[in-house]
Design a protein that fits this description.
There is one protein chain. The chain is mostly helical. The chain has two domains: 67 residues; 207 residues, MetI-like fold. The protein has 16 helices and no strands. The radius of gyration is 28 Å and the shape is globular. The two termini are 55 Å apart.
């Protein structure tokens, strides 16, 4: 049998197979996809999630144990000896002026850096998405290009500039650095979201005599709330957990909690009762922020995935 005859024979068999209404052979990808969505795999994923939460649970328990108990036995022994739990570590933590000031500095750095990035990026994203001005596309390309610039490249030049303008070692300098490097991604993210808003809504607002400010405040902001909340969460987590920028540009009086805990690590054996609650507090604050805005965060991630 020639190749042509063999191909024709297979084609006839396939047509008869389909005409008979027989089910088509299942693809390997479909079989794997169904297996991956099975209940057994979900249980495995749940177990993996619980496994990843074990260190956080250990840190939480250790933050309520004394230094002697922490160095003398594992944190899991608290389940058989609950008398080990005490609030003395947190009392010592909040009586430590260095840690308390570092916590205040973290708030003074993170909140302005988050608010400024969100506000400036929202205005810029609206302009890039809906306002036609000369050089708009090239300006947006430049903003996107800034996203690939690593932070490490700018440390020395910015440090020299801060020294000349007397911002080195100040909270303002750390905030401005975070704002400058947070804006490119923020503008890119919000611009793409704002551009997906139906043009008809904006045209209707303009026909009613609404200015760009009115359109931005009454149309763009309410519809863009999920993306703005997602951006705020991202920015807050990045700044709160930052160590490198704060380590370079802050001073002992302006250092945030991450730098303060890092400096405490040099005396790990003698101040574990400060490190444990401090580390858990540094982890708990961003988690609290995330869960507070979780609903908007999920909406922002799913935005545009389903067409109305």
């Amino acid at each position: 049998m020639t190749i042509t005859q063999l191909t024709r024979h297979r084609s006839i068999r396939t047509d008869r197979y389909r005409a008979a209404g027989a089910p088509r052979p299942r693809r390997l990808a479909a079989v794997i996809s169904q297996r991956l969505s099975s209940g057994a795999l979900q249980i495995v994923a749940l177990l993996v999630g619980v496994f990843w939460l074990v260190p956080a649970l250990g840190l939480f328990v250790s933050s309520f144990r004394s230094a002697d108990n922490i160095s003398g036995s594992g944190w899991w022994t608290v389940f058989t000896k609950p008398a080990q739990l005490t609030l003395s570590d947190y009392a010592n933590l909040f009586h430590n002026q260095g840690i308390v000031q570092a916590l205040i500095n973290s708030v003074l750095i993170t909140v302005p850096a988050t608010v400024l990035v969100v506000v400036i990026a929202a205005f810029a994203a609206h302009a890039f998405a809906w306002i036609d001005f000369p050089g708009r596309d090239w300006a947006f390309v430049a903003v996107v290009g800034l996203m690939v610039v690593p932070v490490q490249v700018a440390l020395i030049p910015v440090a020299k500039m801060y020294r000349d303008v007397h911002l080195f070692g100040s909270i303002t300098g750390v905030v401005l650095f975070h704002v400058g490097f947070g804006l490119p991604f923020a503008v890119f993210m919000l611009r793409n979201f704002f551009a997906s808003i139906p043009r008809e809504l904006l045209e209707a607002a303009r026909m009613e005599g609404g200015s760009e400010w009115v359109i931005f405040r009454r149309v763009i902001l309410p519809l863009g709330k999920p993306a703005i909340a997602s951006l705020a969460i991202f920015q807050f987590l990045w700044v709160w957990n930052d160590l490198l920028v704060a380590l370079v540009f802050s001073s002992p009086s302006t250092q945030p909690l991450t730098v303060a805990l890092q400096s405490q690590m040099r005396q790990f054996g003698s101040n574990i009762d400060i490190l444990a609650p401090g580390a858990f507090l540094a982890m708990a604050v961003p988690l609290l922020v995330f869960f507070s805005f979780q609903r908007y965060f999920v909406q922002g991630l799913l935005a545009g995935s389903v067409k109305g």
